[in-house]
Specification:
Helix content: 40-55%
Shape: elongated
Strand content: 5-15%
Largest sheet: 6 strands, mixed
Number of helices: 16
Order of helices and strands: HHHHEHEHEHEHEHEEHHEHEHEHHH
């Protein structure tokens, strides 16, 4: 993608003054229109909702409205840009909700980056929304925020965690099949132990009872300190410590290059240019490489292929196999809203991943994942999520 895309995007944002606007569903042209949409007529739906709070779904926008909530502490791969710097991304997320799932979404970017403040804000604005999509909140605070909001009566999902994990799992299902391997026999290296890395590790370890897919054989996680193992002292937090107890069964220590030796799969959710061709050559035959750092991946696809990788994916739209959250979150929330699910469960996420993988009927090394523009992708995910929620 040409570098001038940045300047072109900047000019477009300036010309449009952002990406969102508000449109009324009711006409407001006459006195009768005003009487129906506002006073005095509006008093009656208010009275009905006060008597029966569940009628809020019957008479208001709640059932089709999602809050995209961020503190701007980890915006894309750009770092801590704060609430104002996060607004263009959150606006874009809302536009994607509308385009791919016909969900009305609105960005809420908050000044505080304290988890307890974000939790308080989310709880207090929940009455108007049918769901909350947490976005670009850095780890480990993002884990605390999401966990604290699971019982507020509406689905709350941190997309950087679970949207990413769902799309990665879908791509993995088809990639592993293509190279003739099996989940229960592969070793996966994940570089990056933030929101996405933790969620990917969790979903790969879970397996899927519905499809009888087994968990992967082992996962080795790495961060800037090196390989995560039980007993490591440096650069730890409670979430890493818990993860260390159930990954890296051989208690391997060292750096990323040590972890990749003999591994079947590499998944990068870290930073540009972390992986060399020698690291790829050291992997097992028919290796799978997902370099998902944006806009520059851990290793460029042409370099990974030249070093022997059988299947390569990135987070970029100008290469095949783009692993992007937009494939997951619209359909997941559409399904959750349509069955009025109080939360998004693990079964719903697994169903979404399986539906996304099956949207590619004949996978090839150049197409292990569909495009968000492929007909029916988001509807397929929504139906799978609804079915899982009902069960």
């Amino acid at each position: 993608m040409p570098d001038d895309i940045y300047q072109e995007s900047l000019k477009l944002h300036e010309a449009k003054k952002g990406k969102l606007s508000v449109a009324s569903k009711m006409p407001l042209e006459t006195i009768k229109d005003l009487s129906l949409a506002y006073t005095p007529g509006v008093a009656e739906p208010c009275r009905q909702i006060a008597k029966n709070p569940s009628d809020v779904y019957r008479y208001t926008i709640k059932g089709n409205t999602v809050c995209v909530l961020s503190d701007g502490s980890k915006v894309l791969g750009l770092g801590n840009l704060g609430a104002h710097g996060a607004i263009p991304v959150m606006e874009g997320k809302c536009a994607l909700f509308k385009r791919f799932a016909n969900i009305d979404a609105w960005p809420i970017c908050v000044q505080s980056q304290k988890p307890e403040d974000i939790i308080m804000i989310a709880k207090n604005i929940a009455p108007i929304f049918g769901g909350i999509n947490l976005e670009d909140i850095t780890a480990p605070g993002c884990f605390q925020v999401e966990q604290a909001l699971q019982d507020i009566g509406i689905p709350v999902m941190h997309d950087d965690q679970h949207g990413t994990a769902v799309v990665v799992l879908a791509a993995m299902i088809n990639a592993v099949k293509l190279v003739g391997k099996d989940f229960k026999g592969i070793v996966v290296v994940i570089n990056g132990i933030g929101a996405a890395g933790v969620a990917i590790a969790n979903i790969l370890q879970r397996g899927d009872p519905a499809t009888k897919r087994q968990p992967v054989k082992d996962i080795i996680l790495c961060d800037t300190t090196g390989i995560l193992y039980a007993g490591r002292k440096e650069n730890m937090n409670p979430f890493k410590a818990e993860l260390a107890q159930r990954t890296n069964k051989s208690k391997l220590a060292g750096k990323l290059a040590d972890a990749m030796h003999g591994a079947d799969v590499f998944i990068g959710v870290s930073a540009p240019k972390q992986v060399t061709q020698d690291m790829i050559r050291s992997m097992a035959p028919k290796s799978i490489v997902f370099g998902l750092a944006n806009p520059v991946p851990e290793i460029m696809p042409e370099e990974a292929k030249a070093a022997g990788a059988a299947i390569v994916a990135t987070g970029r739209s100008d290469y095949p196999n783009q692993v992007n959250n937009v494939l997951a979150f619209p359909g997941i929330f559409r399904g959750a809203l349509d069955v009025r699910a109080p939360r998004i469960t693990e079964a719903m996420k697994l169903a979404a991943a399986q539906a996304l993988a099956s949207a590619v009927q004949n996978p090839t090394p150049e197409k292990i994942i569909p495009s968000p523009f492929d007909p029916g992708v988001h509807e397929r995910i929504a139906r799978a999520v609804m079915d899982a929620a009902k069960k």
